[in-house]
Design goal:
Bound molecules: flavin-adenine dinucleotide
Number of helices: 14
Structural class: alpha/beta
Helix content: 25-40%
Radius of gyration: 22 Å
Distance between the termini: 33 Å
CATH architecture of the largest domain: 3-Layer(bba) Sandwich
CATH superfamily of the largest domain: FAD/NAD(P)-binding domain
CATH topology of the largest domain: FAD/NAD(P)-binding domain
Strand order of the largest sheet: 7-6-15-16-17-14-18
Number of domains: 3
CATH class of the largest domain: Alpha Beta
Largest sheet: 7 strands, mixed
Oligomer: single chain
């Protein structure tokens, strides 16, 4: 083992939260290194090349869209902390998105008035309750409130008496950020309601890669270091305090501060079997995973009569948000058409992405042949339902790719391919060990803007003004 000079901070993972934390700390002159096991950066929001095309791994929408210098908004805070300009992101706003259930749809856009109007028209008896809900949710989410971790379904009943409207509001919120089966924590509902319905959606010009390149440039410019293909094997502890990390190549980096975006259970695994036995239980393990199919089309979705950027659909009587018994649950899902953002090219190939809930363990149990057969069959089953809420991409498909929960596990190390990580969030970022803090998904801020903000917030709290 060779020991190198001491770092002020070591960051595990070059996803959104890790890159943001690295830029923030390096910007304050700290000696910081971001370690990423994979050869690409971006984590859950990365990119790859197939059949001569570049694909985003997970990008549907950058949520939390606001215009330049909107005071107090999460996007404004992220840009300021990372010293980026709004214009650098080249954000293209959505025109419209929809929540579609059998026989009823709610449209929304980046003007909250549209959703209010739609609720008024489709659910006239819920108008007052919805207005009261929107009013109460306009206050910042208070994670210290006694109701913060109550299920949103229970709290929503105090505002809305129609279970259909409750299901319709929960569907986008669960798909874009609930790690909790059948529900979402009330504080998280509050945050996501703001970021999806009040602020809204945009797409960075050119997809996720230009945004990731920008983050890399900032990290470099501030003097931070990124090491790709550099997995952390163990967090080194001494009497409950962090002393460094052991890398998969056998070398050691010495530090008193580690910020980990690997997830709570995964980070405890890096601390050794005793940490897992003492600090991880069933309640920490996320079970919500996705499959996503990506369909390249010979034309734009709008040419097929589909104008929504994102369509959240449910085909069953009630919306179910749980790990399915089968490989997938095609009864609900998300259809994203990246071409339907303002300013995207109106000619050439089009793209449709289709996301459904999936059972990681069922996918992981398949042998190679059964796995590739299952990908084909499940995609067909999902499309058979989804096309009723958008259009059928199959007659226009020129290329298709599908990923499963095992793909997510392989590329991010997340147990069970759990996209939103552990249902038990650690909002203060603390772990049982001094100098080891969580950032990103398991700290509790999700999505692109959420994860960036998480990296910044925890870096500020534990590295720039340690308690
Ligand atoms: C299909 C899909 C679609 C999505 N769509 C959107 C969207 O449209 N809009 C949106 O806002 N959000 C979306 N998200 C969610 C968003 O991607 C995540 O919330 C966010 O990127 C999480 O960032 P993170 O930094 O917390 O974690 P991650 O992105 O998971 O990053 C963690 C990183 O740590 C690395 N790592 C783990 N263990 C180690 C180790 N031991 N050593 C070194 N490195 C390690 C991993 O390889 C990974 O790169 C989507 C996610 C998925 C899966």
């Amino acid at each position: 083992m060779s020991t190198q000079d001491k770092h002020d901070a070591v960051i595990i993972g070059a996803g959104m939260s890790g890159l943001a934390a690295g830029i923030r700390l390096a910007g304050f002159g700290q000696r910081v290194v971001v370690l990423e096991r994979h050869t690409l950066w971006g984590g859950l929001n990365s990119f790859y090349k197939r059949a001569g095309r570049r694909f985003d791994v997970g990008l549907h929408a950058l949520t939390n869209f606001v215009g330049p210098r909107t005071p107090g908004a999460p996007l404004t805070r992220v840009l300021r902390a990372l010293r980026l300009r709004h214009a650098d992101l080249g954000l293209r706003p959505q025109r419209v998105s929809r929540i579609r259930f059998p026989g009823v749809a709610l449209s929304f856009c980046n003007d909250f008035g549209l959703l209010q109007q739609e609720v008024d028209e489709r659910f006239p008896d819920q108008r007052d309750g919805f207005a009261r809900l929107a009013g109460d949710l306009s206050l910042p989410a208070d994670a210290a409130s006694p109701r913060a971790f109550e299920g949103a379904r229970t709290v929503l009943r105090e505002y809305l008496s129609d279970p259909l409207l409750v299901d319709m509001l929960l569907l986008p919120i669960c798909f874009y950020g609930s790690a909790r089966e059948d529900d979402v924590d009330w504080y998280q509902f509050n945050i996501l309601f703001q970021s999806l319905f009040v602020e809204g959606f945009a797409r960075p010009a050119g997809g996720i890669k230009p945004l990731l390149d920008l983050l890399l440039e900032r990290l470099d410019a501030t003097g931070g270091e990124l090491r790709l293909g550099c997995g952390v094997e163990r967090v080194l502890l001494d009497a409950g305090r962090v002393r460094g990390v052991l890398l998969e190549d056998g070398s050691v980096l010495s530090t008193d501060l580690v910020l980990s975006s690997a997830g709570h259970p995964e980070t405890m695994e890096l601390c050794g079997p005793t940490a897992v036995a003492d600090h991880v239980d069933e309640g920490d393990l996320g079970r919500l995973a996705f499959t996503e199919s990506i369909h390249v089309l010979d034309r734009k979705p709008v040419e097929l009569g589909h104008d929504a950027a994102v369509t959240f659909f449910n085909h069953a009587e009630r919306f179910r948000w749980r790990c399915p018994q089968e490989l997938i649950d095609p009864t609900s899902g998300v259809i994203c058409c990246p071409d339907n953002y303002v300013g995207e090219s109106e000619t050439g190939e089009g793209l449709l992405r289709l996301t459904t809930l999936a059972n990681h363990d069922r996918w992981a149990a398949l042998g190679p042949q059964a796995y590739s057969r299952a990908k084909g069959e499940c995609t067909e089953r999902a499309l058979d339902v989804a096309h009723r809420f958008a259009f059928d991409p199959r007659p226009h498909e020129v290329y298709r790719d599908t990923f499963s929960p095992t793909t997510v596990r392989r590329y991010t190390g997340r147990r069970g391919g759990a996209v939103y990580g552990s249902p038990r969030k650690r909002l203060d970022g603390r772990t049982p060990f001094d100098g080891l803090n969580l950032i990103g998904t398991d700290q509790g801020l999700l999505g692109i803007v959420g994860a960036l903000l998480s990296g910044i917030t925890i870096a500020n709290r534990h590295a720039l003004s340690p308690a």
